[in-house]
Design goal:
By secondary structure, the chain is mainly beta. The chain contains one helix and eight strands; from the N terminus they run αββββββββ. It has a domain of about 90 residues: Immunoglobulin-like (Sandwich), CATH 2.60.40. It comes from Dyadobacter jiangsuensis.
């Protein structure tokens, strides 16, 4: 009788241990992409600083919303990420592209339910030698 009780307790303990380690993945719904830089809980403005390789990003959000700002490269690799705390309602960031390679970058600003996605195209004008001659004759 004691062997059956010990076996039952050991099996129940093993079952609870395995069940505690197995957790269902949370259901993640895709974030809704907002139009015109305005979401329900936050708004974004973005412009290039003249004669520089910098972008200014301004954001206004409701108090209590946590917002993430992510910069991704063309392959989707995360280059920079920061979170705006819940207690801040207005913020501005300067993103510098001086040392970045040419390519397409994505700026994603999102909370738990919505996101604003902006593409940033960075290219260098090629300098090339022109083999033409201008000749003036009288």
């Amino acid at each position: 009788m004691t062997n059956i009780l010990k076996t039952t307790v050991a099996a129940a303990f093993a079952l609870f241990t395995v069940a505690a380690q197995l957790q269902a993945d949370p259901i993640v719904s895709p974030k809704v992409e907002c139009k015109n830089n305005t979401c329900e809980k936050f708004r974004v403005g973005m412009y290039r600083v003249r004669d520089t390789m910098s972008m200014n990003v301004m954001m206004e959000k409701e108090k209590g919303e946590k917002v993430a700002i992510r910069l991704l490269d063309s392959k989707g690799a995360l280059l920079h990420e920061e979170f705006v705390p819940k207690y801040i309602t207005k913020t501005g960031r300067k993103i510098k592209f001086d040392e970045m390679n040419d390519g397409v970058y994505t700026l994603e600003i999102s909370n738990d339910h919505e996101k604003i996605v902006k593409s940033i195209y960075l290219s260098t004008k090629e300098v090339r030698e022109v083999s033409r001659t201008l000749l003036g004759v009288n």
